[in-house]
Specification:
Layout (H helix, E strand, L loop, with lengths): L1 E6 L3 H10 L5 E6 L2 H10 L4 E5 L7 H8 L7 E5 L4 H9 L4 E4 L4 H22 L5 E4 L2 E4 L4 E4 L2 E3 L3 H12 L7 H9 L6 H16 L9 E4 L3 E4 L2
Parallel strand pairs: 1-2, 1-3, 3-4, 4-5
Antiparallel strand pairs: 6-7, 7-8, 8-9, 10-11
Helix pairs in contact: 2-3, 6-7, 6-8, 7-8
């Protein structure tokens, strides 16, 4: 059973999404602003959030920033075509995907199912069935999706978690931004260099004692990134 949280201030949209996702394997939770979504997430084991951007009390971007302080739950943004700049901002601060209004029911079902399967299965396949990997002072548990850096628990977004896991599993090997993007996003990159650079910077800020002098994720000039143990 997967718990899905739908957060949108438009009750008609919430009801429509509930109909689209009517499935005996899904339990649906409802919220109508970002603050309500955070409270539900703190009290329940949520598998995925469908999160609107424009909402009263607390909008989707602010809610997502706060959610990423304590949870790496997958988040799909609900966006209008006129919200392209907010969409990009949302992806940069922790969203995993987006769906543009008006919704195509088949697309909603497919994206939700794919996102849940990806986070449940991909990690196990990449790690060869192991639940934990340790490199130096880094400890990553794929089942609980937690990371310990030099004895400190750190909270990563889903994409940051997948990037770090990919590099830890392949420690000592150098990968270009395009290689990392394809491994984590599972699609051919259009402009991967800046996207990966931003994610790597955020990861370093969380796992490194001194992000300016990283001990783990290092740059190989002209080639890409390498994780050293």
């Amino acid at each position: 059973m997967e718990n899905i949280l739908i957060c949108d201030d438009d009750k008609d949209i919430v009801n429509a999404l509930k109909i689209y996702l009517s499935n005996p394997e899904y339990t649906i939770f409802e919220a109508y602003n970002g603050r309500e979504a955070i409270e539900i997430l703190k009290d329940n084991e949520i598998s995925l959030i469908l999160l609107d951007i424009m909402m009263p009390v607390m909008d989707g971007i602010e809610a997502m920033v706060k959610i990423r302080e304590f949870s790496n739950v997958p988040i799909i943004l609900l966006t209008a075509k006129s919200e392209d700049s907010d969409k990009v901002l949302g992806l940069n601060v922790g969203a995993d995907d987006y769906i543009t209004k008006p919704f195509n029911p088949a697309e909603v079902i497919a994206r939700v199912g794919a996102m849940i399967r990806r986070y449940k299965r991909l990690g196990a396949d990449l790690m060869g069935g192991k639940s934990e990997i340790v490199v130096g002072g880094l400890e990553l548990n794929n089942e609980t999706r937690t990371v310990i850096a030099d004895g400190r628990p750190v909270t990563l977004t889903p994409k940051e978690f997948e990037i770090l896991k990919f590099l830890m599993v392949n420690k000592g090997r150098t990968y270009s931004p395009a290689d990392i993007y394809k491994a984590v996003w599972h699609e051919d990159p259009l402009s991967s260099e800046k996207t990966i650079a931003v994610h790597i910077r955020h990861i370093r800020e969380k796992i490194e004692i001194d992000p300016a002098e990283p001990r783990y994720i290092k740059v190989v000039f002209g080639q890409g990134y390498i994780l050293e143990g």
